[in-house]
From TrEMBL:
Domain of life: Eukaryota
Compositional bias of kind Polar residues: 46-55
UniProt entry tagged with the keyword Chloroplast: no
Sample GO molecular function, one term: potassium:chloride symporter activity
Keywords: Membrane, Transmembrane, Transmembrane helix, Transport
The protein's name: Solute carrier family 12 member 9
One Pfam assignment: SLC12
Organism encoding this protein: Diploscapter pachys
GO cellular component terms given for this protein: membrane
Residue ranges of the region described as Disordered: 1-26, 41-70
One Gene Ontology term from the biological process aspect of the record: potassium ion homeostasis
Length: 1008
């Protein structure tokens, strides 16, 4: 492409922007890097085709040594190309059912049902019915299950949309919403499972000590810690043995709980009325006044008395008494109950819906088993809870329900069945949390979201059992035992679970709203309405559980998202953010109407034509500053044609390297590549077709056609940044774009170059297509670090010379579109962050001094004298002091006009008026009949341009960049093209980085 960072197009160690090569024959390579060795190996066969030489140059038509079929085959050897980018026909692998995996019943239904029963079934239902009554209990159960069901519908939709691997909810969210949101949810879900596991084990230990041994076991904080660790060790061993044992444990536990529950049903049906003693743990029930005769005496606890409540057996009278609410007090906390508290208790007991999804990696058919098993478990547990609430409300008095939370155990014909049920559900729930947290941790480690920190968690044995993740999760559980204060972290655990459920709903909602064609879940019973209601429901539940804890959870989520955004690698699974952005961008691009453009809202939309990025990096970085929130497109033309024998378009192989280069340079730019038989046609294609809709380039930046290019290479550039993660390594990108720089020197004379005429014709093409034109030169000198240091410790300058060299008579009298465009670009550059701090804008206006004005008038008057023979009178009148004062005032007036113009245009800059007598005197005589007539560039005297160049060097010595008006290109002849380039070269030789500008449209508005 016709631009380099130094604006060159010649030859040398590296090719210039217009230097097509005729092929690289068999020859030695200077640098024996892996890339060069590969090229050596290839040199023994057919020559490397244009597709393998990198976009540093344009290649000539293939020679007899060039085999087009090798262009694609050999490219994957260049710079260690990523296998993803190999030019093979894409194929889709359809995941078959795993031969050995968990079934729907053992892998999903049983774990989900057991987790949703938890301790609510045997230890909390009596308390719930006693406070809420049967009707409100059914209402709250229905409301809780509606929220759960909405999340389940979203879960089923995601899980049935494709093959699912291990990691459960984290895997689903990260593959839908991206690694940042998915990773943050995954971490919180892991923490919630660890805390929940510790809570269940702690509850199991407490129940064990309270019901077995009659106080014979030592009971202290230290001993309780030891008991908890011992129980967790048993669970650790079970989890280490693998998912198969977990599934068997789930089935056995489910059968055992079913038997225990059946015994309670049997007791309800066949046990008559009797009095049930109130447990002694209900201390408020056993409090009496120290003085029976004095109601104001202090309360004391008297456990010598026996307090009972009536168990009536099933009775419609009892059912009627227990229909409505009757809020009293929770005797364990001695705090009053209300609707929100009871709803939080019910909802926290039915939130185990992810237990089956956590085992996604061990399921035989996860896309089939997760939806079916989860829904079956939800329906089953809901029916069981409704039946349990009905039977409890019809058999136990309100007094019994409010004062005995273990009413199911105390009314069963053998309390041991209920104890076994409590112990079984508690232990299995803790085991489910432990194995679920280990699967999430394992997937997090495999995705390398936290780098080396989680590397040990990738260790697996056998058929993929993540033993290291299980052990790490167990260690965290033990650490939670040391923390203690289980009740304080219980609410935070619920918040983390709710956040993960919200993530599932958000993921499904986003997929549904983007209308992605590949989002075709086999589960159809959902819509964006159910997803949105699920998000609202889980968010509401977070506030109901605890508003302050919800704030902590949300802040934790946001912090994790920000951390992962800056360090997490991109996953090959894609990100929903791209689909959402596409959906919105497409919609707004259709609304962006090119017919409604207005100069007030003009912004630069730049197409930068690049041939050899090795020397174009400073210019690419500069244009990134110049775009000012506008469009920035980097265009490249590859000379050649698409052969039918080639498997894929050769540019398809090149494109990832260009994108990686843009990433390493930290540019906000698009990349457009095209293949054309000649460079001129390719640039016409890019100029016409780059962009989309109303977002099309209005300015083309192109490098100057140098006689001899510099030898700058990409390795020398300090602009390449280090990226934590990239699909293509930085060294591979550098090698790829510098591959053509290592050809033998003796071949330089055989390199075909773009002619001067072709280059000038390209300039004319851009102007004829109504695009603003900028030519860059000397940008290899641009050093942003030097810009920050300043000139001798001070600021550098952005110097603007809005001088129309083809019409010097009008200089200083007004500004055309080209000069205003020049000022606009300079103003935009001065507004960018780095340039605003370290550079200052200066605008130079060239005017004739008093001496020049005097001489000009003298010549005019002398001519009149010869005609009228009145020399003495006219000469003396001209030397009058009043006339001299008028000319001095005219110079000051020009300076004020410039300042006023800058103020009107709202451009903050220093205005400088400089005399250019010694320059304009070389312009030659002006046609008296048409003094403002423009000369062609070829007619400009060399001395005139050289003098102007010397003046710029004198005034802009401290400039970081200079901006000049570009003389119009010449007509379509070889001689004119040669002379035009020679004159532009004289104009810009030895200057700082220079941008020559020609504007075709009005770009500045002074109106509101």
């Amino acid at each position: 492409m016709p631009v380099n960072g130094d604006g060159q197009s010649g030859i040398g160690n590296g090719a210039g922007p217009f230097s097509p090569r005729a092929g690289i024959p068999q020859a030695g390579i200077i640098d024996k890097s892996p890339l060069m060795k590969t090229m050596d190996d290839l040199s023994s066969g057919p020559g490397i085709s244009s597709a393998t030489r990198g976009p540093s140059t344009y290649f000539a038509e293939p020679t007899e040594h060039d085999d087009p079929s090798t262009s694609i085959r050999n490219l994957d050897l260049i710079a260690g190309a990523d296998p993803v980018m190999q030019p093979r026909s894409p194929s889709v692998e359809f995941a078959d059912s795993r031969r050995e995996g968990l079934s729907t019943i053992s892998g999903v239904f049983a774990p989900v049902a057991l987790s949703m029963f938890s301790i609510l079934l045997f230890m909390r239902m009596g308390f719930v019915v006693g406070q809420l009554g049967f009707l409100m209990t059914v209402l709250q159960l229905a409301l809780s299950y509606m929220i759960v069901l909405l999340t389940v519908l979203s879960l089923c939709a995601i899980s049935s949309n494709g093959a699912i691997e291990g990691g459960g909810v984290y895997y689903m969210i990260s593959r839908s919403l991206g690694p940042e949101f998915g990773g943050a949810i995954g971490v919180l879900f892991f923490v919630a499972n660890v805390f929940s596991c510790a809570l269940y084990i702690s509850g199991f230990t407490e129940a064990l000590l309270n019901n077995i041994g009659n106080g014979q076991f030592p009971d202290s904080p230290t001993w309780r810690f030891i008991y908890c660790v011992l129980v967790s060790l048993i669970l650790l061993v079970l989890c280490l043995l693998g998912a198969a044992l977990f599934a068997k444990t789930a089935l056995i536990t489910f059968i055992l709980i079913s038997i225990c529950y059946a015994t309670w049903i049997f007791s309800v049906l066949f046990t008559g009325a009797f009095d049930v003693p109130i447990p002694k743990v209900n201390t408020p029930a056993y409090r009496v006044h120290s003085n029976d005769s004095d109601p104001d005496s202090p309360l004391i606890e008297d456990f010598n008395q026996t307090i009972t409540a009536r168990y009536t057996g099933f009775s419609f009278h009892t059912l009627a008494e227990n229909m409505l609410t009757n809020y009293t007090m929770d005797y364990t906390t001695e705090r009053p109950t209300d609707f929100a508290l009871m709803f939080a208790i019910i909802f926290s007991g039915v939130t185990g819906l992810m237990a089956g999804a956590n085992m996604s990696g061990e399921l035989s058919r996860p896309s089939h088993s997760i939806p079916r098993g989860t829904i079956q478990a939800v329906i089953t547990t809901f029916i069981v809870y409704i039946c349990t609430a009905f039977l409890i409300a019809g058999t136990s008095s309100r007094n019994l329900l409010q004062n005995d939370y273990t009413v199911m155990m105390d009314t069963n014909f053998s309390k041991w069945f209920i104890l076994v049920g409590i112990f079984s559900t508690t232990l299995f729930s803790s085991m489910s949390n432990l194995i679920g947290s280990s699967r999430v941790l394992s997937r997090l480690s495999h995705d390398r979201l936290f780098g080396f920190l989680l590397r040990p968690a990738t260790i697996e044995v056998g058929d993929g059992n993540p033993i290291a993740s299980v052990i790490i999760a167990w260690i965290f559980v033990v650490l939670v035992f040391l923390i203690g204060a289980m009740n304080k972290i219980a609410k935070l655990t619920s918040i983390f679970f709710l956040l993960s459920y919200m993530g599932v709903n958000v993921a499904t909602l986003a997929l549904e709203l983007t209308s992605a064609p590949n989002f075709r879940p086999t589960f159809k019973f959902f819509s964006w309405h159910t997803c949105a209601l699920g998000v609202f429901g889980t968010a509401t539940m977070m506030l109901v559980v605890d508003a302050s804890m919800s704030a902590i959870g949300v802040v934790s989520l946001l912090i994790l998202i920000m951390v992962l955004h800056y360090q997490a690698p991109s996953l090959s699974s894609g990100s929903i953010s791209q689909a959402l952005i596409y959906h919105q961008v497409r919609k707004y691009l259709l609304l962006l109407d090119v017919r409604k453009e207005h100069v007030k809202f003009w912004r630069p939309q730049i197409l930068l034509l690049v041939s050899r990025p090795a020397s174009a990096c400073p210019l690419m970085d500069f244009v990134n500053d110049l775009k000012k929130s506008g469009l920035y497109v980097i265009g490249h033309v590859r000379k050649g044609e698409l052969n039918a024998s080639e498997v894929v378009d050769p540019l398809h192989q090149v494109f990832p390297y260009w994108l990686s280069l843009v990433d390493y340079l930290k540019l906000k730019a698009f990349v457009e590549l095209t293949l054309s038989e000649n460079i001129r046609s390719g640039i016409q294609q890019l100029t016409r077709l780059s962009g989309l809709g109303a977002m099309k380039p209005n300015t083309v930046v192109i490098g100057f056609h140098e006689e001899v290019p510099t030898n700058a290479t990409l390795q020398e550039s300090q602009l390449l940044k280090d990226l934590r993660y990239s699909k293509i390594d930085r060294a591979a990108v550098v090698e790829y774009f510098t591959a053509g720089d290592y050809m033998p020197r003796e071949l330089n004379g055989n390199i075909e170059r773009l002619t001067n005429l072709d280059y000038v014709n390209i300039l004319n093409d851009v102007i004829h297509m109504n695009k603003n034109l900028c030519i860059s030169r000397h940008f290899h000198k641009l050093d942003k670090e030097a810009l920050a240091r300043g000139w001798n410790g001070g600021k550098r300058y952005i110097d603007v010379w809005p001088v129309d060299l083809q019409k010097p008579v009008e200089t200083g009298l007004g500004f055309d579109n080209s000069s205003l465009f020049l000022l606009q670009l300079a103003c935009i550059l001065s507004m960018s962050s780095r340039w605003r701090v370290h550079a200052r804008l200066r605008v130079f206006i060239c005017v004739n001094s008093l001496q020049v004005i005097f001489l000009r008038h003298l010549k005019i008057l002398y001519a009149i004298e010869r005609f009228r023979k009145k020399t003495d009178f006219l000469f003396k009148s001209f030397l009058d002091n009043n006339r001299i004062i008028v000319y001095l005032q005219d110079m000051h007036r020009r300076e004020r006009q410039l300042k006023n113009m800058l103020d009107t245009l709202r451009i903050k800059g220093e205005s400088i008026v400089v005399p250019w007598d010694h320059v304009v005197c070389h312009f030659g005589p002006v046609n008296a009949a048409q003094p403002t007539q423009s000369r062609s560039t070829e007619q400009l005297p060399k001395a005139y341009l050289t003098a102007f160049n010397d003046m710029i060097k004198r005034y802009s010595e401290e400039a970081a960049i200079t901006l000049l008006n570009l003389p119009l290109p010449s007509l379509d002849t070889q001689d004119n093209a040669n002379k035009y380039l020679e004159l532009v070269r004289l104009l810009t030789d030895s200057l700082p980085p220079t941008l020559l500008v020609y504007g075709v449209k009005s770009v500045i508005s002074t109106s509101l």
